[in-house]
Specification:
Layout lengths: L6 E8 L8 E2 L9 E2 L4 E9 L2 E8 L6 H15 L6 E5 L5 E2 L11 H22 L3 E11 L3 E3 L1 E3 L5 E3 L10 E9 L4 E8 L12 E2 L3 H13 L2 E6 L5 E3 L7 H20 L3 E2 L4 E10 L7 H21 L4 H20 L8 E10 L2 E5 L3 E2 L1 H10 L4 E5 L8 E2 L2 H6 L2 H4 L8 H16 L1
Parallel strand pairs: 3-14, 5-6, 13-15, 20-22, 21-23
Antiparallel strand pairs: 1-4, 1-8, 2-7, 4-5, 8-12, 8-17, 9-16, 10-11, 12-13, 18-19, 19-20
Amino acid sequence: MTTIDLLAGVARATITPPIGIPLTGFAGRGPAEGVHDELRATTLALVSGSVRAVIITADLLYFPAPLTAQLRAEIERRTGVPARNVLLCASHTHYGPATGDNDGTETPADVAAYLAHLTYVLAGTAQAALTRLHPVNLGFGEGESFIGINRRERRPDGQIVLGQNPDGPCDRSVRVTRLDTTDGTPLAALVNFACHPVSAASGMRLVSGDYIAEMRRLVESFTGATCLFLQGAAGNINPIEMRHSMEPARRLGVMLGGEAAKVVESITTTSTKGGLAVRSEQVALPALTLTSLEDGEREVAERRAQAERLRAENPASGSLYWAETRLRCAEAMLASLRGGPPLPPVPAELTALRFGDIALVTAPGEIFTETGMEVKRRSPLPHTCFVGYTNGSIGYVPVPAAYAEGGYEVTHACRVAPEAAGMIEETSLRLLAEAA
């Protein structure tokens, strides 16, 4: 009697929010004015013997911790798949709905209603995928794309700004996993690539999956496989083209989709051995802090003055949002330096999921491209994909050298100390080894 090593099923749902919902990804932008393309959530269920796992990819900015916990609990209740074996992978589109805040602010009524509905929709895709299981063969291929560029541009005065740095690190790898039913029918294609979905720039108020939507459409139309996008370590990578138009999303999506489809078609799938394994760990990352009372007092004074100036100029601006966010962070760091409670560590759940000789390793933050590239290079498994923006949101995790340079990723949206990137790298490698 033949033993089936791996079963897989796919399901998809539309998760487009109502017009008028607050958008997220750029501060101070205003609500959605229309829909350019539908947002999708696509689920892949994997089963081998008694081990089951679910991968959900969604056109969302991120999955905040409360939503992550709620979704995983509902999926476990409905399907019996352990919550720790559920991966919630956001594409990180900046043209999607707010998904709830981590700062304790009140959630708007329309966002709360959307999230309540979203929970049951995504849990339903997990249920559906598990009812559509097929024995599958696997294959892996790799290409490259040049639609992304390092965004940490250094000005002549030494300041780091959000721009283009063609000499900076940039992961161009397009990693593709193909799953076919045993009769050779394409079932799913997992595309792993690292690039911020921000091609329409910061003022766009149309709902969109950005370049990912066009990439997915093209891959599916050419290959017949359901396409799932796994965003990589894109913390410091932006598209090569950004302007107030949806044309860059179309063009970049065609460029990436063409490469991904070519890789899909080049893959020969074979029967799988080794089944399915999942390993995860909650890591306590040290919080970002200041080195001295003097630095803390100066930082608070500067940020308070900036916030007061922006309040007087334009209370609705995105710049004010960031100024007030940075002020709160500086005040908390200063209070800790003055003898107050120490800043709590930042929890981050890392997961390694292996099926056959292919592995995904996930992290809940905006990981710099250097970290993702190094994990893939050092992985004990030959075909490894690094996936960010999964099962939570902890902000940016720069590499240590970036802290002294400054720049938006460090000064505005980072909560963790310089050691965090190394901790994520080493823990990822250990989990991969255990899964192997």
